[in-house]
Amino acid sequence: MAKAVLIADDNAYIRHTLCELLRSQGDFDICGEAENGKEAIEKAQTLDPDLIVLNLSMPVMNGLDAARALKRTMPGVPLIMFSEYSSAFSEQEAHSVGISALVSKSEHISVLVETARSLLTARLLDYLFSQSGNPKLSAFSVRKLARASSIA
Description:
About 50% of the residues lie in helices and about 15% in strands. The protein is an alpha/beta fold and about 150 residues long. A 5-stranded parallel beta sheet has the order 2-1-3-4-5, sandwiched between helices.
């Protein structure tokens, strides 16, 4: 089952490229696009995505401010900051507001794809462990369930 992703970036070319790339992977479905952080928050509340990819620097509301608001309203949804700015300061600040991962636009695009998959798998595993009621749920069973969900 494809996972719903919301892409927020003020650059239309980057949004389009990310949408096409993720759609081509087969395990992602783009549920929406946003040009700024305010629009990302509004669309996230309506579309209920499984994952949100945010640019740091956007007009109206930047990615960090949007992440703060999104974490208050959708704490279980992983957030990826996909930005050309990757200083240690912005990484530390990103994690402090609830960003799950920071991926630089200068890295190979496969890093973004694998990061998205990893975060969605971790979300699934957290859910499975919380619902199992069995602390002895084996890693083998978890991997088998993750494969069955088409995320891993």
